[in-house]
Amino acid sequence: MPPPLPALLRETYDPATQISPAQIEAVASIVRARAPGARFLVFGLGRDSPMWQRLNADGETLFVEDKPAYVEAARQAMPQARIVVADYAATTVLGSFAMSPAALDAIAMPEELRGSWDVVLIDGPAGYWPGDPGRLVPLAWTSRLMARHTHVFVDDYNRVLERHFADLLIRFDNPPCAELAHEREAGKTMLWRIGRSLPP
Question: Pfam families of this UniProt entry (predicted)?
Fold first, then answer.
């Protein structure tokens, strides 16, 4: 059983993590609320990965990453972590807006992702520049995987691609949502699609 959440976050938090402390608290609180045995899907490996792994030690955490160097570093730092290598090269940030639904559906989702997830965090691929791989594929896969009870967090929701496709694929059924501000970077936000366990 992991230690109490405040202690765990203090022990594992890396100040260089790009997600803000308040946003981390929100994601971590939801993961722990689904414990024990939470199923937590994380798109993107980074400085926060050991924290997510430790946070959900009594559950199942699966990381999805496209950069081989990040995968290698994570496997050295977290030998026990489950990591799926994805190829997002076909969907650049700029090209995503012209991609047809048929072309998107033709990108096979890894079998390891199938099933019901309690929490999904979309924080990769990086998607900084027009020619970078974008987050259309993780958003599309999440839209197929999420259930009514699934909490979905989309980092960098302030960016054009993330907002456009999150609104289209994650918010299509008018779910309860919140935007979590980044307290260190003005204008940077994270979308939280709030999962619902209680009856309507």
Answer: IRX15_IRX15L_GXM
Structure tokens at 45: 């490996």
Contact 6/32 with Cβ under 8 angstroms?
no
End-to-end CA distance of the chain: give it in Å, rounded.
32
Domain that holds residue 33: 5-193
DSSP secondary structure string, 52-92? HHHHTTTSEEEEEE--HHHHHHHHHH-TT-EEEE---TT-B
Find, among 119, 141, 142, the residue nearest to 194 by Cα.
119
Rounded CA gap, 20 and 23, in Å?
A: 5
What are the pLDDT digits (tens) for 147-157?
Answer: 999 999 999 99
Alpha helices in the chain (DSSP H): 5-12, 21-33, 49-55, 68-77, 93-96, 101-105, 136-145, 160-169
pLDDT in tens, 106-124: 999 999 999 999 999 999 9
Dihedral of alpha carbons 116, 119, 124, 128, sign: positive
The number of folded domains in the chain is 1
Q: Which CATH number covers residue 73? A: 3.40.50.150
